[in-house]
Amino acid sequence: MSGTAAKETDSEVSERGLRILVDASAALLTVSDVNTMLGRVLECAKELIGAEACGVWRSLDGGYNWRMLASAGLSDCKGGSLLKVPDPSLIPEVAALEDVRSLQVLADRVPWYDSEQIRSLICVTLRIGNRLAATVTFYYRKRRRFTRDETQYARLLANLCASTLYMSELQEAQQRERTSLKFLAEASAVLASSLDYQKTLNTVARLAVPFLADWCTVSMYENSKLTAIAIAHVDPERERMLGQVPQEFGERLHEAGGTGAVLSTGKSLLYKSLPEEEVVAAAKSPEHLEWIRSLSMVSVIVVPLKSRDRLIGVMHFITDQSKRHFTEDDLHLAEDLAGRASTAVENAQLFRELGLSESRYRSLIEATSSLAWTSDPEGKFVEPQPAWSAYCGQTWEELKDHGWANALHPDDRDRLLREIIEGTEDKQEFRGRLWHVPSKTYRHCTVRAVPMKDEVGQVQEWVGVLLDIHDQILAEEKLRRTEQLATAGRLAATVAHEINNPLESVTNLIYLAQQSDALDPTTRSYLDTAAQEMQRVAQIVRQTLGFYRENSAPKDADIGEIAAEVLDLYRRNFMAKGLRVASEIDAQAMACVVPGEIRQVIANLVANAIDASNPGAEIRVTVKKQEEDVLIRVADQGTGISEESLGHLFEPFFTTKKDLGTGLGLWVSRGLIDKHNGTLTLATKTGEQDHGTTFTILLPVEGESDGVDALSC
Questions:
Q1: What does the domain layout of the chain look like in residue ranges?
Q2: pLDDT tens profile 397-427
Q3: pTM for the whole thing?
């Protein structure tokens, strides 16, 4: 037989190869273990391409870091079980190497090749989806030049491994998913255990290291500045170093990339390998650039923290010492952790805001001498109300349900219960008298309540405050009586002054008549009696004038202090009606006045402003020093005064308040200002948008008056 006849023809070789591949394919379909699969593949490879050993390499980060998953025909697979590739794009789809030293990406593997006496290899890459996930490598201990058919057989054998590797990938993915879910569950439990803002952020960083990253930072974003709140690193020494970074080495934010891009777009960034251009862009100076490079960062994830659709910070996940490269799965896990961290931070902030709000609420209640209460939609107390009990002395058993009504004054009880039950407004306000234990008397109170409604508008409970206005009512009544007495005295003095002139005339005429010699005794007797009575009338007039005149003499007084005293007197009135008060008072605004009379004028104007204002409006009081006088201005945001009323405003007994006023306040006020040689004017607007009334007083600094009560300071 010739040598040629002794050899297999190409077609015979092809048939044998196909038969081996078909048999191998059928056998591998039932195999789920990678090591068993690889042993059978090696048997086929020995027959088809003369391979002496083979191995399966896996990468979970897209081709940067590799580990040997299984091997056959190798004496020391552990010695060469790790491989790092700086750029996965350098790995060809099929690499048939006659000399293993010829591929630069495998330079670090040469010592292991020598220990295994490997001289040649064929490496076939496998992808799962779009990700470079595995390679099947066939090893040769003798140098070998590969034919095209051998390369093709190697590719086919590698593809036969794909199904088993895919099942292995699914199992590993499921294990990673279980591990990730367990991690997130533990993270959620830890984050929910604290409402401390700083502690929450530090906990987040600690959770991420080392499970997800070698290094994690949490930074908050406010006023276009990032502030590092928490830092964690697998290396305690490096963590201390990172916590002492010079301020000038803070990250420079730019919208083109890095953290700046995350802050501007609100979208996460994944750098599987940190690009040099990003490192350069983040540096502020050559020294800063050198410092960044010294950190040896390999892979970076930047994820935003959001609260109520507002970006509040960022989280950085970084690998350095492990040399691991992040994948898309790592990005999703980081985003999930950041989302839970954002919720924890938001809860901490809401808790803090709630605490501050409650503190402000309690301070407000204490400052206004008010007490708070809550009830069900029918007005029944459903839980103890300590403040109410302390005020009226009722125990919880006496107070619950509608028992609080027993503390109302008997004359007010039926009326108030009817008003409360029939009330339909969203904001309720009631006035009545409530038993007060400390004073052992019924005191005047105002009760205000607002409903707390659910999402469909149904009232779930009532929340309200009780304001003790007893002292205010007594003060108002005292002020009212004082004003009435002052008005009556001024009116009496005015009448007496006007009577005095004709009285003098009549007295003179009687005297002249008495001097006549022609008077008969009877007529003279009548004139003597009339003279006596006229003397009595004159005495009454003099007593009336003397009674009205204020005993205190005019003196230099600080008008600003007088105005401040009036505002303090009416403070409860402002609060009861929900009015805002703005004052602009110059110090040492001195003028020569009778202080009590100026106080009465300012009090009249402030009281009128309160009556004219709606809840929530503003009253502005101004006292300013000028060269020769002092300006006093009281402005409100009421409805204004109509034109038909303006002409009668300073007339006695004219009022726009219907049953509330006597109509004497402005008349008396103008008289007192005239007495001080000052002026009292007003400006008013009645428009729908811009309305209100402003009274302006000008008092001369040096007192000058032409009246009976001449001023001299």
A1: 8-175, 194-351, 372-466, 473-548, 555-700
A2: 887 777 888 888 988 888 887 777 666 666 7
A3: 0.44
